[in-house]
Write a structure and sequence with these properties.
Structural class: mainly alpha
CATH topology of the largest domain: Rna Polymerase Sigma Factor, Chain: A
CATH superfamily of the largest domain: RNA polymerase sigma factor, region 2, helix turn helix motif
Distance between the termini: 44 Å
Largest sheet: none
Shape: globular
Radius of gyration: 19 Å
Order of helices and strands: HHHHHHHHH
Number of domains: 2
Number of strands: 0
Length: 192
């Protein structure tokens, strides 16, 4: 609990510094929220490449509008709203974008990742992609970006209980989909 309070205090301090023109403070905020901005934008756009552009565009827009932010404690949800709006605007302009990253990851073998791990990663990634968007974004931020439920709730402007329920529902949905695949993977792993 103390870490969350410290984190909120540190964030408010960074926002205040950025509001008066401290670029380093805004850069720290951007580094912290950029991965989540990309995840949220990709939920709207379906393309990692377009999501990267939308996230960058949203961060620039947020920097320009930062002096108008009155409640510094609402920075995360404010930025999340900007990201969603920018992604929607980009999406309206380009409906038929190909998700190049997903295509490459699905077909290009990795030299570093062993075959079994790659298969498992693909199975899990595909199962997560099949989740409804409201569950998918929470799972991606929580598990892939390693955010706390509090951070996810603030960024998505959701009650904490909603985030926890969505994580629970996503796990319950994923469990039967992944049971057979994971069972086979762990059996391979145990063999001498």
């Amino acid at each position: 609990m103390q870490a969350v309070v410290w984190e909120e205090w540190e964030e408010a301090r960074l926002v205040a510094a950025a509001q008066v023109g401290d670029l380093k403070a805004f850069d720290r905020l951007a580094q912290r929220y950029r991965p989540a901005a990309v995840v949220v934008a990709s939920q709207v756009l379906g393309s990692r490449e377009a999501a990267e552009d939308a996230a960058q565009d949203a961060l620039l827009a947020a920097y320009k509008a930062l002096p108008q932010l009155e409640d510094r404690s609402r920075f995360a949800s404010w930025l999340g709203m900007i990201v969603r709006n920018r992604a929607r605007r980009i999406g309206r302009g380009s409906r038929e974008m190909l998700d190049l990253d997903r295509l490459i990851l699905a077909h290009a073998p990795s030299i570093v990742i062993p075959h079994e791990q790659r298969e498992l990663s693909n199975v899990v990634r595909c199962a997560v992609q099949e989740l409804p968007p409201d569950l998918r974004v929470v799972v991606q931020l929580y598990y892939l970006e390693d955010w706390s439920t509090d951070q996810v709730a603030r960024f998505l402007s959701l009650p904490l209980t909603t985030v926890k329920w969505r994580l629970h529902h996503a796990r319950r949905t994923l469990r039967p989909r992944l049971a057979e695949s994971l069972e086979g993977y762990y059996e391979l792993e145990r063999k001498p």
